[in-house]
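Class, study these two lines:
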Amino acid sequence: MKKMIIAFWMAFFVISMIFSNNTNAQSYLDVEVIPGETTIQLKWGHIAEKYELYLFKEDGKMSKVWEGNKLDYSLTQLEANTPYKLKLSAIDENGVPLDNVVINSSTKRTDSQLNNIKESNAKFLKNSDETIYYPMVKSNLNLVYNENRVVLSWDGIPSELNNYEIQKNGEFLATVKGNKFTDFNIKPDEVYTYSVVSYKKIPQEKIVQKKKEIQKSVKKKLNMQEEKSVFFEPKIVSGTIRISEESVFKREEVSQEQDSLLSKNSESQVKSFQYPEGFGYLLRYTTFIPMDYAPNPWCKVNCNYKYFGGDNRGFNVWSNKFRTRLDSYVIWDWNENPKGVTANPQTGWTYGYDANKKLLNQKKADAVKDHRVWMEEKGKDWIYHRGSVASSNPLTAAPDIDAFYYAKVWKSGKGEFYGVHDQAPSHEFYIMNYPGDLDLPIHQAKHVDFEYLFPWTTKKEWQVNVY
């Protein structure tokens, strides 16, 4: 009897273990993505008898690159610093898919590309106090998703104490420690922009130096929020995806009509600018003052004007109220050959007011002189360029509003973007199909304070991939 009881409990234990293992066994693809300069390595856990890997081509179609029963695969001979979109399927013994995930990642920059960006940044940040101490030129954000979840993983993003803030479409989701986050609150076919935000404290000896410069320039002690803006470099790395196998810019959504685009731009802009022939994308970089009246932050130096006119608005790609704007049209001809970039630089009116907000003067900065597009390069399916805006206040001596970006846009709408700008005023950057008016935010940054136009303040560094 005793032996029967022991045998019973042993059998019960074994059955319980088997049931427990089956219950807790991984039933979905949990993919680790490891990008290199010309490779993307994938690793995942065992859930099926066979796996199939597909690569999305520029026309949106998929091609099978591998199938087998291994739990890892490396794509090789890829282009450096290029976004890639993949699909991994887990197939059971009957050929039925158990799980599918779409993988969005980007290969890393080569040493020469890294050095090129660092050198170019240094040319723009001419003042020694404007140095980016912890550039995120090696950063990467991977987005793996299906209709149930989006998994973010990242590396190379400088941070203090390995803390990161996660945002979706500009809204706060969570603060995490580490380099992974999963979002289950998604809907099929929706377009989402996920961002990883961090702050990195500059070297202590530079903090001491900046404190002296602040006391000399603005003669005040900074509060905690102001110290964060001055002594910590803000970083943001983002990725934009559609929760489907379609690209963010669906090909059927590309219009052949320019009416909607022309009607949303100002009448003066339509008359003065010759729109390019062909199709492609418009990149619109704009700076604007969010309030109606902005106090003159330089009154301690020159107080001819107590206030300057603002734009009294929030983020809006179609608003014609702005301080600076650079429209860059990235164009292919109707035979699908890359033509290049057509730039349309613009500045808004600057209004100066007295203490009673009575208008004293108005003037425009020179847009052609202050804004430019350069270093244009073309491939069969992509066009690369760099753009910058650097306008000062035309009514009084003041620091420039500085911003620059690097952009590589593919014919499909896929894009890789990087930029640096002041923390004042508000900055917004969009991509929209051309002709047409389907627009997508690339980067948005709220105004902090006009004192942060001074050279001793830190710049905001950002990077975005659109898939």
The CA atoms of residues 352 and 361 lie 5 Å apart. The longest helix spans residues 2-24. The radius of gyration is 26 Å. Confidence is low (pLDDT under 50) at residues 12-24.
